[in-house]
Design a protein that fits this description.
Radius of gyration: 20 Å
Order of helices and strands: EEEHHEHEHEEEHHHHEHEHH
Shape: globular
Helix content: 40-55%
Strand order of the largest sheet: 3-2-1-4-5
CATH superfamily of the largest domain: ATPase, nucleotide binding domain
Strand content: 15-25%
Bound molecules: 5'-O-[(R)-(carboxyoxy)(hydroxy)phosphoryl]adenosine, zinc ion
Largest sheet: 5 strands, mixed
Length: about 350
């Protein structure tokens, strides 16, 4: 079964074809970063218009890369939320039109669930139940995942997402958007102990997190000063260390408390080299298995949408209640399941 996945929740227009929920036949990601970079963040109206321009060529490229035509497609999956509503609508309405025209089944997929279930597109399959850390520009959440379609939110950020904090801190340091990538790069030449940034909520019970205090601390650190290149590297390294400490502490305690053997990290921030390094060390010490997704599956992509869509349309959770068919509506069903 070939599922065509479409993703347009934020600043990437993406389409992919996945066979039997496991084999990625193509994955095209058209990034809008250049259009948003001058503003230091994603501008929703620009995102929606840009998706409109990109969606037809991106879907055609995904079919072409897979060596397929629309006749080879058995079903469609599209991100239904969470995300920017105008941006989501472009993907949802395009996918609905295609499904209606071709007479194919269609399912709306939760973007966050798709991030961590992208582990099933790799060769290193996580064992249920596992703990998943989904960290990106819009979300930072920890889940216990019991099966396909069955997961529980254990904790989440109470304010900024980790990626959002990276983006804002980078802007304060004069680094380019997307800030997480830029901070990760310059932090390699900085001293993480140079600034004592707070680790909010790290000692509190439970798995909720907070990054807005850290962001304010960065603001206070840079206010009224012109930082040298070395001071920028140092502040970036110290900031990255603070974010990583919180994410690692909360994820590890969730894994231990839930008595799982496997941890999945997914989402754009899961590309962070220090997060992968520290969590790799900590899981090895405890005899746990870390599934840090390959970088191309960390940031937004449509393979994760097609892969999970397969499970809802034809696979493990085809009997589940989720936004399916042409009546699905991103206005009323922003979060399909769990998150
Ligand atoms: O998952 P994603 O591509 O889009 C959303 O769903 O938000 O994540 C984008 C976020 C941005 O905030 C970006 O700064 C962050 O992921 N990011 C990183 C790294 N690469 C991307 N953050 C920290 N370190 C990185 N290497
Ligand atoms: Zn995402």
């Amino acid at each position: 079964m070939n599922v065509l996945g479409i993703e347009s929740s934020c600043d990437e227009t993406a389409a992919a074809v996945v066979t039997d929920g496991r084999v990625v036949r193509s994955s095209i990601i058209w990034s809008q970063i250049d259009q948003h970079a001058p503003f230091g963040g994603v501008v929703p109206e620009i995102a929606s218009r840009s998706h409109l321009n990109a969606i037809v060529p991106v879907v055609n490229d995904a079919l072409g890369q897979a060596g397929m035509t629309l006749d080879d497609i058995d079903g469609l999956a599209v991100t239904i939320g969470p995300g920017l509503i105008g941006a989501l609508l472009v993907g949802v309405q395009f996918a609905k039109g295609l499904a209606l025209g071709l007479g194919l089944p269609i399912v709306g997929v939760n973007h966050i669930e798709a991030h961590f279930m992208a582990a099933f597109l790799t060769d290193s399959l996580p064992k249920f139940p596992f703990v998943a850390l989904a960290v990106s520009g819009g979300h930072s959440s920890i889940f216990r995942v019991d099966d396909f379609g069955r997961f529980t939110l254990l904790g989440r950020t109470l304010d900024d997402a980790a990626g959002e904090a990276f983006d804002k801190a980078a802007a304060m340091l004069g680094l380019p958007y997307p800030g997480g990538v830029a901070i990760d790069k310059v932090a390699k030449n900085g001293n993480p102990a140079s600034v004592a940034f707070p680790r909010s909520m790290i000692k509190e019970p439970g798995y909720n997190m907070s990054f807005s205090g850290l962001k304010s601390a960065m603001r206070r650190h840079v206010e009224g000063r012109v930082l040298s290149d070395q001071e920028i590297n140092d502040a970036a390294a110290a900031f990255r260390e603070a974010v990583v400490d919180v994410l690692v502490a909360k994820t590890m305690s969730a894994a231990v408390d839930c008595n799982v053997s496997d941890i999945v990290i997914a989402g754009g921030v899961a590309a962070n080299s220090r997060l992968r390094e520290v969590l790799g060390q900590r899981t090895a010490e405890k005899g746990l298995i870390l599934h840090a997704l390959p970088l191309e599956l960390c940031s937004d992509n449509a393979a994760m949408i097609a892969g999970l869509g397969h499970q809802y349309l034809f696979g493990a959770c085809s009997d589940f209640d989720c936004p399916r068919g042409l009546d699905m509506d991103p206005f009323t069903r922003l979060v399909a399941t769990g998150g």
